[in-house]
């Protein structure tokens, strides 16, 4: 009980958790390569769906471990070995993502690694059932949910496509829905707010760093000209504005007492997809190779997903911000729609999208009084 990090008043993410975040972002970069392969200047709807469907199980491995560690982490040797094994399985999955829906052998390997990671988390829950004394029933219940979900997903290897894919994702959906259904029971051991907020914040900053790396990689080995310089500068300014948007009021979440933390964790699924799309947009604006119509569709999807993922947690956990969130987001999405309707080139559209992000930063100044009051001692 005394080794449970849940009760540490000065708790921070462990070095192992930071290592896990790094592995996840590497895997996400491999997933993002699905969007980097435009065919004759186009990204087909099936290709975008492939990206989302491959991203989901990778993210759910990270989310499942985060849910466990938030409540039951002891940073013991057993916990470390189990986490490192999950990270290795995630590396294997990331090496197969571009082929996972095309070849039966790679699909089976990917599913086996995913289910192995989920069963490891389930086992970690089972051995943690006494860490909260009489509240141990929560650990057993969640462990059973994850084990059942992994078993359902694993059974998909016995079926032919497309049923195999449907059963695989049915197992993931079972996990996610079951945790929502168990919402009241999870209140018995509420989420550790500071730790959960720090975890999603750290992962987000690493992903923003990957966007900067994509700018550098796109500029390497090309002949610089007016268009790609404008795109590169605009891309960096956009990443900076996204950082400002995301972290400017981040401390408001840290001061809340979360219950399950699902509003924060689940919404970041959309936010991370949005960030991955934004990184692809910057790359295409610098290098070209994407039809303007497809660029517009990708930009619209990325912007909407980013703001949905960023705003939902605040909307649910900081009710006093709701009027500002709705008005600011509506204004920025309207401006984004206007930019995307104009007959512009890729780099010009990126400049316009960057301008809309800057507009949101300025609109945020309207609730600075709430931010200042949050800094005052309770």
Share of residues in helices:
over 70%
Global shape: globular
Which sequence of SSEs, written as H and E, runs from N to C? HHHHHHHHHHHHHHH
* CA gyration radius, whole angstroms: 21 Å
Give your account of this protein's structure.
- The chain has 378 residues and is mainly α.
- Helices cover 74% and strands 0% of the residues.
- It has helices at residues 15-32, 45-72, 77-96, 104-126, 137-154, 163-181, 183-186, 193-219, 226-247, 251-254, 262-287, 292-317, 322-341, 346-363, 368-375.
- α3 (77-96) runs antiparallel to α4 (104-126), α5 packs antiparallel against α6 (163-181) and α12 (292-317) runs antiparallel to α13 (322-341).
- The protein is globular and about 60 Å long.
- The relative contact order is 0.10.
- The model has no long low-confidence stretch (mean pLDDT 88).
Secondary structure topology:
Elements: H1 15-32, H2 45-72, H3 77-96, H4 104-126, H5 137-154, H6 163-181, H7 183-186, H8 193-219, H9 226-247, H10 251-254, H11 262-287, H12 292-317, H13 322-341, H14 346-363, H15 368-375
Task: Considering the chains and any ligands shown, give keywords for the structure.
mainly alpha, 15 helices, 0% strand, 74% helix, single chain, 378 residues
In short:
The protein has helices spanning 15-32, 45-72, 77-96, 104-126, 137-154, 163-181, 183-186, 193-219, 226-247, 251-254, 262-287, 292-317, 322-341, 346-363, 368-375. By secondary structure, it is mainly α.
